[in-house]
Amino acid sequence: MSNRWQMTAAILLAAIPVSCVFNLMKINSLAIILVVAFSLVVGWGSRKNIKLDFFKLSYLLYFAVIVSALIHTSNFSLELKNIESKLSLLILPFAFALLPFKSVYIRQLVLLFTTLAVLVSSIICLIFAGMYWTKTGDTSHFFYHEFLTPLKHHAVFYSIFVFISLMFFLIETPFINSIQWLKKIKWGIILYLLLLLFVLSSKMVIVISFLLLPAIYLKRNDWKRWWWIPASLLVVAIVGLSYKNSISSRFHDLLDTNFTMLKSDVIGKGEYLNGLEFRLLQWRNTYEILNNKEAWWFGLTFSETNKTLYEQYDALQLYGENTATGKTGYYLYDTHNQFLQTTLEYGILGLLLLLLIYIAIVRLAVLQKDKLLFCLAVIFITFSFTDTILERQYGMVLFVFLPLLLQSAHFTPKSKTESEG
To answer: CA 243, CA 328: separation in Å to the nearest integer?
Structure first.
């Protein structure tokens, strides 16, 4: 592929994660369509040589089980709408199979554009938070979901983009150092991204980052010399969490978890559930629903799952819709766990196919010796225990697009040497 085509590919591919960072989902859909169209134009001539490997097939098999729900659904139109929202599982593997490039440079450009999008968008949010603070004296807009008010984004999903940007700067250092202006401010950007993770206050992403940073960045021989870096980070974290602030309160909330209440037949409409309590309750809900409906093997389908969950919430007398305040309470909440959500929708068969995708990602990371892909695998698996990554469009981009990008343009010993030069 010529340099002109490669640059076109990089720009089109970068438009997908960049539009997600800014939460411009209509542009994101358009970008996906353009990437598919581009792949057809440049790769159609070699279509006979296309090979769908184990990794790409894992996405297609999971999409097949989603489509199979049409056979036994009671709401055909809603099921079709769900299939439409999951089309990335089908079209992106074929698009990457058609694209005739294996250039590490394209991968690096896409990730660089994504990082720049994170930097620009977060600075915009900081400016808005500062303006709000000067007017009201309220610092709440410097943390968590309120921080992303200008973007109307989800703090945890956004923090994963921050995490990916941080790991990109730490792992693909030769490429960063090859750009002189970027090399000069590299450590400033890394520190800013670390600070941003705390601002977004995602407990899961913060913990995973602290565990992975020393393991990924420090080589085996570096530990004796640089042991004080992870030790300092740990001390800072402990000291920070020991004081009452917007970040520490997110962790202290977990200490009040009432495990006994989760066994009750009635929770009570006035009862507050913290994040851990709500997620643990969903394990019980999933078991009871699948048992009562005798739907262990093939699930309830997408259209029936949330409706049945709401009935379960009602039976437990959880805080529901309040017409006076307009709040929906726990109603309209899914399981906040991709494994449980998939099992409810598509049964054990769907769960096994979802696990197949994770196995394929981990296997690919090991085979390619790709540290960045390994970091993605860890964050995806962990995140799937705390949220439903496939139920949002930017979750689909994280889960489908980024692993495919890293697979299609991965390092080989030769290309890594070249990039260092």
So the answer is: 33
Residue 88 lies in a domain: no
Q: Give how far the C-alpha of residue 405 lies from the chain's centroid of Cα atoms, to the nearest Å.
A: 15
Side-chain half-sphere exposure of 314, counting CA atoms within 13 A: 8
Split into its structural domains, the chain has a count of 2
- The answer on 125 and 174 residing in a single domain is yes
Q: What integer pLDDT is reported at residue 253 of this predicted model?
A: 61
- In 3D, which of 223, 344, 216, 340 has the Cα closest to residue 289? 344
Q: What is the Cβ-side half-sphere exposure of residue 251, based on CA atoms within 13 angstroms?
A: 17
DSSP bridge partners of 322: 327
Query: 98-107, 271-280, 332-341, 377-386: lowest mean pLDDT where?
Result: 271-280
Q: Are residues 190 and 274 in the same domain?
A: no
Does some domain include residue 160?
Answer: yes
Query: What is the value of pTM for the model shown?
Result: 0.86
Segment holding 208, helix H or strand E: helix 203-217
Taking the C-alpha atoms of residue 237 and residue 195, their distance in angstroms, rounded to an integer, is: 12
Range of the domain at 150: 101-256
**Phi and psi, residue 386, nearest 5°:** -120, -10
Residue 313 in domain: yes
Say what angle helices 413-420 and 104-136 make with each other, to 10 degrees: 60
Say if CB 341 and CB 335 are below 8 A apart: yes
Q: What is the mean pLDDT of residues 57-64?
A: 96
Q: How confident is the model at residue 47 (pLDDT cuts 50, 70, 90)?
A: low
Domain co-membership, 223 together with 314: no
**pLDDT at residue number 42:** 85
69-105 tens-digit pLDDT: 999 888 999 999 999 999 999 999 999 988 877 778 8
Do residue 153 and residue 270 come from a single domain? no
**Whether residue 361 sits in one domain with residue 301:** yes
116 and 216 part of one domain:
yes
